[in-house]
Design brief:
This protein has about 375 residues and is α/β, with parallel strands linked by helices. It contains ten helices and 19 strands. It has two domains: about 1-160 and about 335-365, Quinone Oxidoreductase, Chain A, domain 1; about 170-310, Rossmann fold, CATH 3.40.50.720. It has helices at about 40-45, 90-95, 160-165, 170-180, 195-205, 220-225, 245-255, 275-280, 320-330, 350-355, and strands at about 1-10, 15-20, 30-40, 55, 60-65, 80, 125, 130, 130, 140-145, 150, 185-190, 210-215, 230-235, 260-265, 280-285, 305-310, 340-345, 365. Helix 10 links the parallel strand 18 (about 340-345) and strand 19.
């Protein structure tokens, strides 16, 4: 039994820092001593999921204990946690779509406990079982996860930098490299330059895009975008409906025809169709941010032969993609340290959320 401080979402929009109890690992489970946990809008949303939950789905730490069936990890190993846990045997995993596993994914299987402990009592709060966000619960001093949720990494990678790989970096980078396969010489427009948008920019840079056009309503965000690889920037107006004025500027930069690829990274429903207005005929629009509500789209925006895709989590294959990202980081081709604007102790989670909602950070990270 392990006791740990944890951020508990109460289900009504509030949270508190409490003590949880965690059973020792059984089967293929791993107890991870958390060292860092990324903070994103999904964590903020989890405050209102209607039930108590151990928060957090991005994280990195050190293996503290392993179950008897764990095959590839040992105590003391540094790991990055992955929230889209594959089973490797279902239809989607066999198709190579590990990010939408039919058995374990907390998203597609519709179960925040997917892939968890054999009994629901593995993690308790006030002597009652409590779920862990995305079967992880990284905003805690310790987390009990399946071996399949762990990706081994180098011990010299800072934990805060490693932690953000497991969602924001993977989502942005993977949407470019895996989902759309942006080719050298391509033109790319990126709408929204928060954490995910910056990693779309980085993915486009790594892929050899000739023009990477960042669009945002904040000049300071565009400064960051240039640091992370944007070749051109457009300061949009808040009153620019569907960013049609910004789209005209994108077309001017792309020989009058529009970009080859455009990525929406704002999660603002009103901008869901905006990338369609920025791409050329037969171009590809990508909805990266995860808009999950009904929106209206003028079908004229699809003329002609345009594609619109909505990939999940950059089509992540964690055991393949995470090491690639870390290799690019170690070579200096992909920035991680620079993305961590500020770190916080768990007691300052409210301040971390306030800073995130105010757009002050590229990425905020809890450190333990």
């Amino acid at each position: 039994m392990t006791e740990a401080k944890a951020a508990i979402a109460l289900g009504d929009g509030a949270f508190s820092i409490e003590t949880i109890k965690i059973q020792d690992p059984i089967g293929d489970e791993v107890l991870v001593e958390m060292k860092a946990a990324g903070i994103c809008h999904t964590d903020w949303d989890s405050l209102s999921w209607g039930k108590p939950i151990v928060m957090g789905h991005e994280g990195a730490g050190i293996v503290a204990k392993v179950g008897p069936d764990v095959k590839n990890l040992k105590v003391g190993e540094h790991v990055i946690l992955n929230w889209a846990i594959p089973c490797y045997s279902c239809f989607q995993c066999m198709e190579g779509n590990q990010h939408i596993c039919e058995k374990n994914s907390a998203v597609t299987a519709g179960n925040t406990l997917a892939g968890g402990h054999a009994t629901l009592e593995s993690t308790t709060f006030k002597d009652k079982a409590i779920e862990r966000s995305f079967a992880l619960g990284t905003m805690a001093e310790y987390s009990l996860v399946r071996e399949a949720a762990c990706v081994s990494t180098f011990s010299d990678v800072p934990f805060a930098s490693a932690a953000i790989v497991s969602c924001g970096v993977m989502t942005g980078y993977g949407s470019v490299v895996n989902a759309t396969k942006v080719s050298p010489g391509s033109t790319v427009a990126v709408i929204g330059t928060g954490g995910v948008g910056l990693n779309v920019i980085q993915g486009a840079k790594v892929s050899g895009a000739a023009k990477i056009i960042a669009i945002d309503i904040k000049e300071e965000r565009l400064e960051l975008a240039r640091q992370f690889g944007a070749t051109h920037t457009i300061l949009a107006e808040k009153t620019d409906k569907l960013l049609l004025k910004a789209s005209e500027k994108v077309k001017e930069l792309c020989e009058g025809r529009g970009a080859d690829f455009a990525f929406e990274c704002t999660a603002i429903p009103a901008l869901g169709a905006a990338p369609l207005a920025m791409i050329r005929n037969a171009g590809t629009a990508v909805q990266v941010s995860g808009i999950e509500e009904e929106i209206s789209i003028d079908m004229n925006l699809f003329e002609w032969d345009k594609l619109y895709i909505n990939p999940l989590y950059g089509k992540a294959r964690p055991q393949i993609d995470f090491p690639k990202i870390i290799d690019l980081y170690k070579k200096g081709d992909l920035l991680l340290d620079e993305m961590v604007t500020r770190t916080y102790p768990i007691q300052e989670l409210k301040q971390a959320f306030d800073d995130m909602l105010a757009g002050k950070n590229a990425k905020g990270v809890l450190v333990f």
